[in-house]
């Protein structure tokens, strides 16, 4: 906290070392700026900062967008010159605490009820170190963080810049007309222009301006020649900068939009550009075509170089970058004989590397809808996920428009190949199917609760369950997966993507996805594994009904034991089958609140505790006679095994 009138300030100070509690050289504080920021100092010098507070979050964190609500709260009283930062007791959060290490790392932990879980460590990139690129420099936080000058600026010292010494920063390429001639100070709106830069951690030394909206913020900065940049941020309002822009960072996604004041000649479309275009137009048609072809080649080459710069293998731990010629050789130039199947985002091929290692290559189609965002999403996600029930990503390859993901090869391919084949289905008897169900549940629990990231898969289905040489299940295809941070448990999207039949009602209709939407998909998956029937396979005529209706009817009439594929009856454990049917029906409840969470699902599968009574699924369109259902519930002929009876709990 700080109290400027009384000269009070409380800071969090590091130990000198992990074993020496004497004061260290780093301290964490909040600044009296409006709005305030979190700041780590090294001695008296700034070392790292959060970015300004925006109502429920600190900006400057690429992990958190506008929907994020921090477990901590900020109170700032501008009139009294005081401010405080504390754990929020007003919101329903798990307890959290902050630790500052002797090396200057801020670590945030939260209590999951049994132990403290690590949530976040900052700074985590060289770009996070305060002012690493100097005044008017921009640190690009991509695969390999690097400094460059802001648009319209050039290095102050070319020699030092080439040596990698960026601390002196950059200077304007073109002086602002209103600064060159004092009589033009009120005419800035006619001579200057603003360049918009997205996904930015805004610079330090901001000033709050009480403009009512973004347009007033723009007009106010434009009319003031000393205004270097502005940003209108949700939850804050208008921020402006005068003088140098220091500690500006650009992320790959999220962040704010910063508008930088430049001379109009620094922007494409200036008079210089018009002269060049006019000169070019005077050439013959042939010269124009040659020039256009050359520019297109240069553009393609730059795009290719940009891809390669963005995807340096060193940035993704444990993931290898493969050259295209290596993959073409391994797959025999993507021959049809090596094609394993066709996924939602493109074909998958088998390949054999020169060392004899077998791989599966997912070749993303340019028309598939999976672009840079999904590609980076899948690489980033899977590289951080390690579990025996998740498929392992070995590497990737990028060349021009080609984007490839290289996975470990699964000898037995995907679950649907066995499940829906009249011959192969006999190779997975009930005990093996029960093992597969448990393995998928464990993988899902890891994604939802146990991994460093909280991941919602959004496309869980039989074709995305791969089988290794021992028929152990591996969850694959994370192209649609989304990552949650901290206490976030739900999100929504305008772009609903997935597979019909597996999508929960709230996701299909409203774009809401959460742990419970994955649970719905898992419920459908369970019922498919038990019955050997596809969710998309219907019978027509008077008895038209789908898988959910069949499962509901089976549970009402026989507690679900007759839903199992008839060809597997010899290997059947009636108690396990009936219990799994009931769990599957609980997972596909219409209301997300009625579905169990992932931890509860795994507990239900691996124990013999009493289960709740499911409601009729929304898509089970054939209602049964209520008396028939009551007869089943009250029947003395319960499903039993080893003289243990599964109790039935009457609905409230």
Automatic annotation (TrEMBL):
Keywords: ATP-binding, Cell membrane, Disulfide bond, Glycoprotein, Kinase, Lectin, Membrane, Nucleotide-binding, Phosphoprotein, Receptor, Serine/threonine-protein kinase, Signal, Transferase, Transmembrane, Transmembrane helix. GO terms for cellular component: plasma membrane. Its main location: membrane. It holds the Pfam family PAN_2. It is a single-pass type I membrane protein. Residues 178-264 form the Apple domain. PROSITE patterns: PAN, PROTEIN_KINASE_DOM, PROTEIN_KINASE_ST. Residues 334-619 form the Protein kinase domain. Its EC number is 2.7.11.1. InterPro entries: Kinase-like_dom_sf, Pan_app, Prot_kinase_dom, S-locus_recpt_kinase_C, S_locus_glycoprot_dom, Ser-Thr/Tyr_kinase_cat_dom, Ser/Thr_kinase_AS. It is found in: Cell membrane. It is an enzyme of class 2 (transferase). One of its GO terms (biological process) is innate immune response. The chain crosses the membrane at residues 275-297. This is non-specific serine/threonine protein kinase. It comes from Eutrema salsugineum (Saltwater cress).
């Amino acid at each position: 906290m700080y109290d400027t009138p009384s000269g009070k300030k409380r800071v969090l100070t590091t130990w000198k070392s992990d074993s020496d509690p004497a004061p260290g050289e780093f301290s964490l504080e909040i600044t009296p700026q409006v709005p305030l920021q979190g700041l780590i100092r090294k001695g008296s010098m700034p070392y790292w900062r959060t970015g300004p507070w925006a109502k429920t979050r600190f900006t400057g964190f690429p992990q958190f967008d506008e929907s994020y609500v921090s477990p901590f709260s900020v109170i700032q009283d501008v009139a009294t010159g005081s401010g405080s930062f504390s754990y929020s007791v007003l919101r329903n959060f798990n307890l959290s605490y902050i630790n500052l290490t002797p090396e200057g790392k801020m670590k945030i932990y939260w209590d999951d009820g049994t132990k403290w879980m690590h949530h976040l460590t900052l700074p985590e990139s060289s770009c996070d170190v305060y002012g690493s690129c100097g005044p008017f420099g921009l640190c690009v936080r991509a695969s390999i963080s690097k400094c460059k000058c802001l648009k319209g600026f050039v290095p102050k010292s070319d020699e030092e810049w080439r040596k990698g010494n960026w601390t002196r920063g950059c200077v304007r390429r073109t002086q602002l007309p209103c600064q060159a001639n004092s009589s033009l100070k009120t005419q800035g709106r006619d001579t200057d222009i603003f360049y918009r830069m997205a996904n930015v951690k805004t610079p330090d030394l901001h000033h709050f301006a009480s403009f009512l909206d973004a347009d007033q913020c723009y007009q106010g900065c434009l009319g003031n020649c000393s205004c270097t940049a502005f940003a209108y941020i949700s939850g804050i309002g208008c921020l402006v900068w005068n003088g140098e822009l220091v500690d500006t960072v650009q992320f790959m996604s999220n962040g704010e939009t910063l508008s930088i004041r430049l001379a109009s000649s620094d922007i494409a479309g200036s008079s210089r550009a018009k002269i060049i275009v006019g000169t070019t137009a005077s050439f013959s048609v042939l010269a124009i075509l040659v020039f256009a072809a050359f520019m297109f080649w240069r553009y393609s080459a730059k795009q290719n170089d940009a891809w390669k710069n963005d995807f340096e293998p060193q940035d993704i731990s444990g993931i290898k970058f493969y050259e295209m010629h290596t993959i073409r050789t391994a797959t025999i130039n993507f021959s049809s004989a090596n094609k394993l199947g066709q996924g939602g985002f493109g074909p998958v091929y088998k390949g054999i590397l020169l060392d004899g290692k077998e791989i599966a290559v997912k070749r993303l189609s340019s028309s598939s809808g999976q672009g840079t965002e999904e590609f980076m999403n899948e690489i980033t996600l899977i590289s951080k996920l390690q579990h025996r029930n998740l498929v392992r990503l070995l590497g990737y390859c990028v060349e021009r428009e080609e984007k490839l993901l290289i996975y470990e090869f699964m000898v037995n391919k995907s679950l649907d190949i066995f499940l829906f084949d009249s011959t192969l289905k006999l190779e997975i008897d009930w005990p093996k199917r029960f093992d597969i169900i448990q393995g998928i549940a464990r993988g899902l629990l890891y994604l939802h609760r146990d991994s460093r990231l909280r991941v919602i898969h959004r496309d869980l289905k039989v074709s995305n369950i791969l089988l290794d040489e021992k028929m152990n299940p591996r969850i694959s295809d994370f192209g649609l997966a989304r990552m949650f941070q901290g206490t976030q448990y739900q999100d929504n999207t305008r772009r609903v993507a997935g597979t019909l039949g597996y999508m929960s009602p709230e996701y299909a209709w409203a774009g809401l996805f959460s742990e419970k939407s994955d649970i719905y998909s898992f419920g459908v998956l369970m019922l498919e594994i038990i019955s050997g029937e596809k969710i998309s396979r219907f019978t027509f005529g008077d008895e038209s009904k789908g898988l959910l209706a069949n499962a509901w009817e089976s549970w009402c009439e026989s507690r679900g034991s007759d839903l199992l594929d008839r060809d597997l009856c010899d290997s059947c454990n009636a108690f396990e089958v009936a219990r799994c049917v009931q769990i599957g029906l609980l997972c596909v409840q219409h209301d997300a609140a009625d579905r169990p969470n992932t931890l509860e699902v795994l507990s239900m599968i691996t124990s013999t505790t009493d289960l709740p009574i499911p409601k009729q699924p929304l898509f089970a369109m054939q209602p049964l006679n209520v008396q028939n259902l009551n007869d089943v519930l009250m029947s003395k002929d319960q499903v039993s095994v080893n003289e243990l009876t599964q109790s039935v709990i009457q609905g409230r």
